Fold:
Amino acid sequence: MGFVTLACSYKNKIVALPIRSLVFDGRWGITDHSGDKLLRLMLEVKALKKSYGKVVAVDGVSLRAGSAETIGLLGPNGAGKTTTVSMIAGLFAPDSGEVLIDGSPMRGDTDPVKRKIGLVPQNIALYDELSALANLNFLGALYDLHGPVLKRAIGEALDLVGLADRCKDRVGTFSGGMKRRLNLAAALLHNPQILLLDEPTVGVDPQSRNAIFDNLETLKKHGKTLLYTTHYMEEAERLCDRIIIIDHGKVIANDTLHGLHRMLPVTNLLAVELENLDGFKPEPLLALPDVVSAEVREGTLRVGLHDLTAGAPAILQWLAENGHSYQHVTSERPDLETVFLTLTGRSLRDS
Structure:
């Protein structure tokens, strides 16, 4: 169980408690993973459920996100990610459960607390026949932004996403990646504290994807809370402080990337290219400390380890003592695909 530092005024002391034991309200905060920032709990989702007839789309999803924190919602298509985000955004009501924004329950379409949320939908929410500037002026007016306030908000949003020089061009002339970046800019006009991003890089080229990543990392540095849904594992690995894996509408894991790796029977792989495999038997390696598995695959000895630091020296020493010379040694860490396969029994990409 991971620990965080609970900031409180009790006898002027800082007390460390397990994260699952923390009780949050408006007076409490937690430090981030580096231990040097106080995070305010901005988003809390409690046991959301949503069904369409007999089909259960979301089944008891709960999560928490603090300021300057990026939470990844990872799962295959149809897992319930978009439905969950839609309920958090207040687009429709859950059958049961509750959404709290900065400690306040969200009540209905006109609840002022919704202004703290910005939504970047999976579908592009722009008008192709209008210019980028006209789109943002129209969308800003929907947030009741006008005059110099709106002009400044548009300028800052366009600068962030790198489209200031194309603001007068029709959106219909934009590439898919540029539309995605403008979609992000539109969600930022009213300066929301929480940003909900529903697969914001679908169908974009690698350059635009990296530009969006840079934008999101900048927003996080400015204290924004980001909830990022994706079925691309590499995106979650790069961007997210914590990753929630959802499948068939249920949360099946919720942890840091390191914590998810610890769920696996093997947390590290050591690959050794031996000079001569004739007669080599990997089974004796299983008797060494921290060794979970050992096999020869495609001419390479592959050893699964609980602890790379403790296990690797013993393996290399055993090979040397038993006359097995090697040419090259590398270590690998299982990725989120392996985690998902372990938890569900199937591939994330094939789900």
User: Anything to note?
Assistant: The CA atoms of residues 132 and 167 lie 5 Å apart. The two ends are 30 Å apart (CA to CA).
